[in-house]
Design goal:
With 337 residues, the chain is α/β, with parallel strands linked by helices. The protein folds into two domains: 151 residues, Rossmann fold; 163 residues, Rossmann fold (3-Layer(aba) Sandwich), CATH 3.40.50.1370. The chain is 36% helix and 15% strand. It is built from twelve helices and eleven strands. The structure holds N-carbamoyl-L-aspartate (NCD).
Amino acid sequence: MQFIGNHILSVDQFERGDIEQIFSVADKMEHYALRRRVTRVLEGAILGNMFFEPSTRTRVSFGCAFNLLGGEVRETTGFKVSAISKGESLYDTARVLSGYSDVICMRHPVPGSVAEFAAASRVPVINGGDGANEHPSQALLDLYTILKEMRHKGRELDGFRISMIGDLKYGRTVHSLTKLLALYKNITVTLVSPKELQLPEEYVERLRSVGHEVVVSSDLSLGIGHVDIVYSTRIQEERFASKEEADIYRGKFRLNQAIYTKYCEPNTVIMHPLPRDSRSEANELDNDLNQNPNLAIFRQADNGVLVRMALFAMILGVVDQVDTCSRGVNWYHRRDV
Ligand code: NCD
């Protein structure tokens, strides 16, 4: 795809070559993300970060990624503090805010709303999650993490085995990731969820149509047994009619060290888009996994900055200038791995 000046709304926009390009730019961002060097390539540029749903990682890492490239960030969080609560339309909001920004990241609870906003925006818009629909930048960072973890074991993406667990019906990270997996070859995807929260048919069909093996199960111990990656997810409480309804499914698929040791192959990588729900009634990934070197959840979150830096540099057309606008850092910088 043509990145310069374009929106990123859905992973449907990407071909395999686009993803390879994003990942190779992301690799080059590492020493800036680790603060070994600083670059001012986006000096003077403004990111409009508009989050109308709760967010920690996505909002802050988009902001950090932009700052690390030398740009400034302006934020709106929640409907209450926005004129949308006074009845302003997405169209007007987009027209106005795109006059204040060079690029916009937006999260909104309604599927399709970010695309609607983008249609009225005068600058590129990145979808930071639109309801239960898609979360393209998360899927990219998930795939980037899978690739790194697999390469660490001398493997590639083609032919790997992944188990996706939890709320596959409403989990937008799962939706976008399954679509990306359909660009690769020979993948085995095991889908573990309560029957009511199964992955919608269109995504299953997409995987099967390219020849991937799809196994549907509601048994965690079988589902995590013969895979390279376990991708756990949270019950998407905010998509249910009531908290009580979400409670029915909470805590059904819990992974802890004992279960991992008993059922997983050695060195199975554990991922989660985060936040993991650590309340006792949910606890899908127990804290006793924190010392397990195969727990990749924080590496995954770190990778988000690299991938988001790459997207900004590509959309704003500065990939080739990142290094020429760089210098060493002035301060003592400690960062433990
Ligand atoms: C996810 C999301 O918002 O879809 N979080 C994230 O962006 N890393 C997953 C979730 O909230 O469960």
